[in-house]
TrEMBL record:
Residues 379-402 are annotated as: Disordered. InterPro entries: Ap4A_hydrolase, Calcineurin-like_PHP_lpxH, Galactose-bd-like_sf, Metallo-depent_PP-like. Keywords: Membrane, Transmembrane, Transmembrane helix. GO terms for cellular component: cytoplasm. Signal peptide: none annotated. This is Calcineurin-like phosphoesterase domain-containing protein. The chain crosses the membrane at residues 283-303. Residues 1-208 form the Calcineurin-like phosphoesterase domain. It comes from the Bacteria. The keyword Membrane applies. Pfam families: F5_F8_type_C_2, Metallophos_2. The keyword Metal-binding does not apply. SUPFAM superfamilies: Galactose-binding domain-like, Metallo-dependent phosphatases.
Length: 478
């Protein structure tokens, strides 16, 4: 099966239509969306509708998450936040609900690869995989041999060889060796940050394990007209870049890993751009030497001397030391948030993950705040759903019994396995009670060893415990 991996479309209808036309012309069997369908661009509704129609699997991106209120808009700068607020006004309730229910990670039916928008380590923190060290941490976080990501807008791949070395490679055509591991980024469809302004995606053949990166031209002038007509003031990176330079916009950004460039961060888009290294002027060393000689000559002339050699003392002269001005100390980085292991904590999201069993099943999850269960009837989701009557919402429907399959949640066996509830706002949480599937000891053992995590409204972790005892009907966490 030939699969097209697309990412970071960012409501760019012109780029998406061009890529879709290319995909259809090649007879691709399936499209998988790696996130950030919306944000920045002027056609969020049309693009999202088309992506929903044509994509077999989708995962959530950070712009999607903020638009669906699964992340706080304060994580973005003013320009990106203004674009998201405008985007929210363009989407109906059904579209926002679709974004809200997207998983953070997924796999196809044959488990041939893993997909996520940003990092495997903490998918909803939306960190960047930019270096070999970043890639190494993400390889260690899963066992998949092939991982597809987006988020950086830069096509390329990291390869983990048999000796444990991680290397960065530019996009092209290659075959995935079954003895090696890969993190592959197809680049951005709608907000390119490559050496020429074209839409980028890749094709994966699940039978041959061949990967091909594709680059597709789109109508930039039509996009400009659309964004001007929308009244949207924020502009995506590639438009701002083209506006800032003269010429036709080709070969404006160096390729990944080019040694003459160093990565910097453009605060306005929270993404790596590149700046040319500052080079020393060829006459600068000569000028410095000339200055030093001049200062030495002046000092020699000004030193008082005597004609009588006998009066020269043998005592060494004491040099007057001038302390060099120390460079200002860099500001201390903010301390990482403290993650509690005991209640109470203040949190919005409650997540249960990584049980010993091949599945995760829950009868009910009660989250207590000031004597009330604040989880009941709230929005819940899970990594996968075994069958239609075993949705994530079954664990917050107020029914604890759990002795029938239509009363419990149930995931598939594809890891990572997790269930999560969004409380809608932050609450001071004093206790949590989990009600297990109540159909015999063997089935209850599946929940044993689970991890319990809680996050605040900005998706920062505030609580985490691992290897919790779960092979009983009622589990109390206090």
């Amino acid at each position: 099966m030939r699969i097209a991996l697309v990412s970071d479309i960012h409501a760019n209808l012109q780029a998406w239509n061009a890529v879709l036309e290319d995909i259809q012309a090649l007879g691709i069997d399936q499209i998988i969306n790696l996130g950030d369908v919306v944000g920045y661009g002027p056609n969020p509704s049309e693009v999202l509708e088309s992506v929903r129609k044509h994509s077999r699997i989708s995962v959530i991106g950070n712009h999607d998450a903020v638009c669906a209120l699964r992340m706080c808009p304060s994580v973005f700068n003013d320009q990106a936040r203004a674009a998201i607020e405008w985007t929210q006004s363009q989407l109906d309730e059904e579209a926002c609900q679709f974004l809200n229910e997207l998983p953070d990670m997924a796999r196809p039916e044959d488990n041939s690869f893993l997909i996520t928008h940003a990092e495997v380590v903490a998918p909803l923190n939306f960190g960047y995989i930019l270096t070999a060290e970043d890639a190494e941490k993400n390889f260690a976080a899963c066992k998949d041999s092939i991982i597809f990501i987006g988020h950086t807008h830069r096509p390329g791949l990291f390869l983990l060889n048999e000796t444990g070395e991680v290397t960065l490679h530019e996009p092209g055509e290659f075959n995935c060796d079954p003895n090696l591991r890969y993190i592959i980024n197809p680049g951005s469809v709608g907000d390119p940050r490559t050496e020429d302004i074209v839409a980028s995606y890749c094709i994966f053949d699940s039978e041959t394990r061949d990967v091909e990166f594709r680059r597709v031209k789109f109508d930039i002038d039509a996009y400009r007209q659309a964004i001007d007509a929308s009244g949207l003031e924020a502009r995506p990176f590639f438009i701002r870049y083209l506006d800032a330079v003269e010429g036709n916009g080709e070969s404006v950004i160096p390729t990944v890993g080019e040694s003459d460039y160093i990565p910097q961060f453009d605060i306005s888009v929270r993404m790596p751009i590149v700046k040319e290294k500052k080079k020393m002027h060829p006459l600068l060393p000569v000028g410095l030497i000339t200055l030093l000689i001049g200062f030495a000559a002046i000092a020699w002339i000004m030193i008082p001397r005597s004609d009588k050699a006998a009066e020269v003392t043998a005592a060494p002269a004491v040099e007057e030391k001038v302390a060099a001005a120390a460079p200002p100390s860099p500001p201390e980085p903010p301390a990482p948030p403290k993650i509690a292991t005991k209640l109470p904590v203040t949190a919005r999201y409650v997540r249960i993950s990584d049980p010993k069993g091949p599945f995760l099943s829950l009868a009910e999850v009660e989250v207590m705040s000031e004597g009330k269960n604040v989880a009941v009837k709230k929005k819940a989701r899970q990594s996968s759903t075994h069958s239609a009557h075993m949705q994530a919402s079954k664990a917050v429907d107020g029914n604890r019994r759990g002795h029938k399959s239509n009363l419990i949640t149930h995931t598939n066996a594809h890891r990572p396995i997790w269930w999560e509830v969004d409380l809608g706002q932050e609450y001071p949480i004093s206790a949590i009670t989990l009600w297990n599937r109540n159909e015999g000891k063997e089935l209850m053992k599946r929940l044993d060893g689970f991890t319990l995590e809680m996050f605040d409204s900005k998706r920062q972790p505030v609580y985490r415990t691992e290897k919790n005892r779960g092979a009983v009907y009622r589990i109390d966490v206090k």
